[in-house]
Fold these 2 entries.
Entry 1:
Amino acid sequence: MKFGTKAIHAGVHPDPTTGAIMTPIYQTSTYVQRSPGDHKGFEYSRTHNPTRTQLQDALAALDNGKHGLAFASGMAAIDCIVKLLQPGDEVISTNDLYGGSYRLFTKVYATYGIKFHFVPMHDMTAVEAAVTDKTKLIWVETPTNPLLNVIDIAAASAVAKKAGALLVVDNTFSTPYLQTPLELGADMVMYSLTKYMAGHSDTVMGAVVVNDDELHERLSFFQNACGGTPGPQDCFLVLRGLKTLHIRMQRHCENGRKVAEYLKAHPKVEKVFWPGFADHPNHDVAAKQMNDFGGMISFVLQGDRKEDAIAVLEKFQLFSLAESLGGVESLSGHPATMTHASIPAEARKAAGLSDSLIRLSVGIEDAEDLIEDLKQAIG
Ligand code: P1T
């Protein structure tokens, strides 16, 4: 089945009692049993809920994976993955990643005795150098948030396999419309569903997709035992969002290209970060592992001054200044003070994240209007 057909049909089926074509919101915490243990597969909604089951099946199908697991947020999904580790284990993570992931790693799990190495991953040299006999997990985000660095998933998988470590790809920026990491050798794909997957800035959720049965069992145990599960209404909203994922992503990519090209040609813009440019580092890897280049763009103005960036952010009319990304509407952000403020200034600097960086999530409005907004804001 092709992607667009799967986005609409995979994992979901008409309600057996009424024929309702849309997955009902099973707003229930529990399920009646005829006799202890004699039930219809559902005991308690933290463990299983039919709306969530259909979403999990849809997510697995979109990534060409076997098992999907949904969580109350992207962070809850990451939290569940890190729970696979033990004190003394080591993780190698990209040094350019969502600030909340960095915060969870360094402020929570590092205090439990797990060691994190943050390294650049434009090639695998630094990753290979960081491998020890304690390396258990390699954490990749590609393209990265917010610098849009592209990491070679197949190359990372080769390093992980040699090290005997699991490879996770945070696929939030790409979605399975643009890339399917399990097919490139990743063991787990992780999402903030809050973003492109749900697509309408109306819910916070996360997910993990895997192929391996045993890994699925371990993650399901933590999903239930720790309880970071989503409610059925949120699952319904993501199911609805997924039905248009392919159409939205197509337009995000088209608009992303137009905005990136406009910014690149602008005399007041010093640098534009977008993997679709032929001179973007690892553009060839992006062209190989992605179907298109996405709608996330970061840029710095000439002179690289924070106050100039803030002045532009304050002038935007259509690019609303807000955290998050991947919704139908365009958003702008200032990573240094917003989404990445929890990364210490030194670590941000080392990763190349300047205090004047502006991040755009290009929505699916008419591109001409978006460009008009950039024109009036940048001048
Ligand atoms: O916000 P939540 O659904 O918990 O997902 C966390 C998360 C994980 N991974 C990536 C790549 C992300 O971008 C995020 C959340 N990011 C933002 C809120 C943001 O504006 O960048």
Note: The mean pLDDT is 97.
Entry 2:
Amino acid sequence: MTERRPIVVDCDTGIDDSLALLYLCASDDAELVAVTCCSGNVEAHQVAENNRGLLELIGRGDVEVALGRAVPLVRPLEITPETHGPQGIGYAELPSGRRPLSERHAADLIAEEARRRPGELTLLCIGPLTNLAVALEREPALPRLLRRLVIMGGAFRVPGNTTPVSEWNIHCDPDAARAVVHAWTEAIEADPRVPRILALGLDVTEQAVIRPDHVVALARRAGSRPDDAIALGRGEDPMHATRSVASNPVVRFVADALRFYMEFHATYDGFYGAFIHDPLAVAAALDETLVRTEALAVDVETGGALAAGQTIADFRGLWRRTPNVDVALTADADEFLARLIERVGALAERVGVAANLSNVAP
Ligand code: BDR
Ligand code: CA
């Protein structure tokens, strides 16, 4: 039987966050313990609405969703509706979640779940690291208690996507990111068996590019009709597409959310497709062979007019510090995309079948 790896996801859903959650729920080798919400792409309360709605859509409304801190530790809140849409899910719409929000604060949930199963829980952070920094204040032993911390964040050998040197998740709360990497350094220095952070920065996540033909393949895998679920640019202007008319509700969500993200990338990055940062981080959390890493000492710049939010990795060992992060340097993007299409396509198919059955009168 496949080992099911227990995972708590801290996210700022977010178009690629939502695809990451779908990948996780579609994976037999993952057990989604809970979802915690931070501000980033949109405000934390909207993130919680998105997560509850998405889980409801795929029949996982039972999963606990907990709200975290609404603002970064020190800096003022920044959000990015131009990247992810006013609600954070592009042109898509979601049902309301039936399960009420958790009574636990995200930081307490992270600390309590880590304590409940020492050495077993993977914590996956795909938004700013605010909630984790607060959790570390409440439970400083977290680096020892977790099986692994996996983050989507940073730009190590490549330019940033928010400033010339900073990646969005780190940019939003550099003080939290610094607190996290320092906590891991201290823990590893005290006990070298403590696992380093696995960080997927833009170096690898910008290799994970989804295009309309991948969405078509996913729609076909789901048995959705018609399969051109997203504006394909087949001689048409993709900017003038309408909402998806796919028969499958998960495919409709994916197509409507991703079309917004693809339009954003067409405007700012010069291609009609999208970097799917967060799903790659999920895939690597479940199977680290998808990335090649190097153990490095990493720190985060929090001050400075030009370099705030920069993730600095000491590739030459000049600091003579203990490596605290396994920095992902390359990724098998083709294998990742194949898995995404297979897993999310199969999940969509199951959801579609269940929806059709419940529509059949007894
Ligand atoms: C990160 O920023 C967000 O916009 C995405 O969801 C991803 O987590 C990429 O820089
Ligand atoms: Ca994110």
Note: Residues 8 and 33 are 5 Å apart (CA to CA).
